[in-house]
Amino acid sequence: MEYRFLGPVQAWHAGVEIPLGPPRHRAVLAVLLAHADQIVSADRLIWSLWGDNPPSKAVAMLHVRISQLRKALSAAPVDPHMVVATHGSGYVLAAQPEATDAAEFERLALAGRRALARGDSRTAGSVLREGLGLWKGRPFGTFADEPFAQAISVRLEALRLDTLEARIESDILAGRHREVIPELGGLTREHPMRERFWAQLMLSLFRDGRQGEALQAYQSARQRLVGLLGVEPGPELRALHSAILRQEVPPVPAQPYRPPRATPASPPGEAVGREAELAALLRLTGRERLVSVIGPGGAGKSRLLSEVVAACSESFPDGVVMVELGGLRAGESPSSRVAAALGVRGPSPLRPARLIGERLRDAELLLVLDDCEHYRQPVGLLVRELLGRADGVHVLTAGSHPLHVPGERPFPLAGLALPAPTSETAATVGRSPAARFFVNRAAVGRPGFRLTDGNAVHVARVCRVLDGLPLFLELAAGHVDGQRVAALAERLEKHPVRETAASRAAADPSVSTSLPAAVERSYERLDGAVRELFHRLAVFEGGFTREAAEQVCGAGVQVAVSLDALIEASLVTTGRGAGGEARYALTEPVRVYARRQLWKCGESAEVAVRHAAYFETLATPMPDDAHEAELRAWTRRIEAEYGNVRASLQWSVDQRDSAAAVRLAAALSPFWDRREMYAEGRRLLGSVVALPGPADPSERGRALLGAAWLAIVQHDPGAALSAAEEACRLFDRLGDPTRAATALLHQGLAALTRDEHDYAETFMQRASALAAGEGDPQLELWFSVVRALHALSLKHYDEAAALTAPGSREASGNPAVLAWLDVVGGAAAFRLGDLPSAAARLRRGICLFQGAASAWGLSVALLVTGQIAGRGGDHLAATTLSGAAAHLRDSVDAAWWPTVLSWHRELCYQGGRALGAREFGDARSSGRALSAEDMVGTALATLSRAARAADQPTDVPAVEGASEPRRLQAVRGVTVVIAASCSVQHH
């Protein structure tokens, strides 16, 4: 039900007005609306309707009028006794304040004033007009002068005049001063004491070239004020009068910049083989201020950027602008081309980069800069200036090297993933992104072309010899017509360097003469031993240390001397690792060249074997009894060499070396969890556990535990149950009750996410019996978390609170598990109505999740906090937090289980209904755009406000399942997503 009283009193349902009948029915509704959602006693109603001299049968007449009003409201599909409810000797209209046109007007008035304060006069004018358009007359219509309506009417009328002044100001700022002069003439006559109307009239007349009339308006205002009140005009009006006399009235200010929308350089939907990179880049682009796509010529950077432009066109309020910097004309700079693309023109004493920054100061857009490799320095200066002046601007660049601007997030882009060396069939080769891309492009020129068992081997050969680089694959695909794929592969293998150079020249002569030629000239100057090391270094991914180079590449080579020679030749770059150790790397274009040379000399397999063996030894498992400091050191060590360790694992999988692959996967599974690399961890673990062949049972069981846990995080309970069941059988045979109990708990949690409570209870009981007497503190905490989850899902809130109550056992827990205990405990306390305890638990849980850098855990804590805010009526904070939570969840490829997803949707529904579509969308977008630190700050501030509000008792009953009435009614339908994050992986 919706109600309108900015004019005649009306009731509406689903956009249709409900006939209320005679005025006496509207009178009753008007009184109830004046006290919406409050109990109005019968005596108060009688006085409001009949004053100090009510009829003798006033009580009976009131009952009749209430009955008639209910009958009128029954025309809508609602229960009229719920809409107008009886409470003791009084009545209450069950209408939230936001369900009225007055509340909508106040919301729009506030939004318009905020837009005006930030200088966005166009938006302000539109919003304020919408709000003023809700007025159809005096508040409460014919009842406006009744005592019950007078206070509300006066307040709303004052707000209407303030809003009208703000709307006129927005029109003047937008340059529509001539249009508002007639309106202001009437307003100054109707409201001669409101000096702001006079000031607006004077300013509009002056800007319309009517200085004399502007000065005359001041004299008229002064005469009215002195004559009626005996006072001189205020300081604002006097200052404007003096400014007009001195001709010093400021000009119309510049409006917030609105850039043109981008047009992708190439049609979207062509990211074949780059689906994973596109998804990752989209996440980064929304989160980071500056992302640089780094890769060799032909890697498909421009194509990927075009896909980002198409996908992000609606994600930024001011759109996306894409600028190609290739082929600048004489005298043209990157800044001048960007300025032209943005529509930033006109004479200015500012240099172009600063002018762009100033004009985009209040814009919220994505600026995409392609072909930056030849202009790294000027583009870097432009981007540095832009990011420093325009907080709402995100920049995405593409080039062969980073810009080296503070805050830059490099996004390496190599060739598409190649078919595995043993791939021979259409099914196996077709899994390769490079092969899928080649087949897709070949089918464009030769309809009907497809991958078959007959040509799969040759397609794989083409992909390998061209390093999976999309440009070269596309050019090669154009030659499929008229010749067999086998012949094409043979020709490319005979002349790979010339073919590549020719392809580059056809695509971009400037690149073809600079990139391959420079690398090849440097390579030709190397002596034999240095060349040999250069080939072998191509096996490293993500850099390497001198020790790693000696162990992997040192056979017959003096690594120290040869490495220094490569550094001097600018073929190897140097840097420092997180621990301060020296690290070395080949830039991606150089590494592509080195890989080709390694392939040609026939050492690829031999070097890959040594590489896999070295990093398999380096990736030691996380100790079972490790403390948090040791876990962090272990994580940093794996992180430093993760590219190489992952390559070692992939090599083991490709070679079908089950023992080595399982050993590495078991060691890495806690790392994927701690670093929230859920999608990649699941992909690699899935390929490992599917390998046939012998493997250590304990290591396989740990890999299966990791696979089960990551499946739970991504809400794939079927996969989780299957993996955990096999792990449980293995650990039962090995006599390892702790890990077997962990596997059972994983099964219980997976069953719980499918709402199979009986199965979940069975698994937990078996786990408890198995782990009895083991004395493992981490496992005990994990038991508490899962049991509390189960209790919450059954609405046994007292039990959930008891299971998560703080105690001495927490001294042995790591921060992630303690955070989950606090979040679950806070959720239980909230549902019991104990808001101070809930706020304290959630506050600690949020801080622990922030310290552990757990985006997924933090997302759940923010959702619980949003529920508290929403229940307290702070829908703006609740919606902002729901947007922040969704962004955190998406950023790590996690999922919310169905119960939590419905909980999130309920929060969104309540926010949308309370705020309206526009403000709700703005709040959601604001939440998604917050940094992690700002998300935490917003949540903590919300909890502090909620805790303070809890000091004011209310009569709201407790939630179903609570043992006694409390001060806050909890939200219906809850299950909190939970995970012990890294706590159980080492069990």
Explain this structure.
This protein is 61% helix and 6% strand. With 987 residues, it is mainly alpha-helical. A hairpin with a 2-residue loop joins β5 and β6 (90-93). The two termini are 55 Å apart. Mean pLDDT is 80; it is low at 262-269, 346-350, 497-515 and 953-987.
Key attributes of the depicted protein:
987 residues; mainly alpha; Arc Repressor Mutant, subunit A; Rossmann fold; five-stranded parallel sheet; 13 strands; 6% strand; disordered C terminus
In the predicted model, the low-confidence regions spanning at least 5 consecutive residues are: 262-269, 346-350, 497-515, 953-987
Q: How many β-strands, per DSSP?
A: 13
Strand line-up of the largest beta sheet: 8-9-10-7-11
Q: What is the percent of helical residues?
A: 55-70%
CATH fold group of the domain at 1-174: Arc Repressor Mutant, subunit A
Largest sheet: 5 strands, parallel
Strand content: 5-15%
> In angstroms, what is the radius of gyration?
35 Å
CATH superfamily heading of the domain at 1-174: Winged helix-like DNA-binding domain superfamily/Winged helix DNA-binding domain
CATH class of the domain at 1-174: Mainly Alpha
Averaged pLDDT: 80
The number of distinct helices, counting runs of at least 4 residues, comes to 45
CATH architecture of the domain at 1-174: Orthogonal Bundle
Global shape: globular
Structural class: mainly alpha
The end-to-end span amounts to: 55 Å
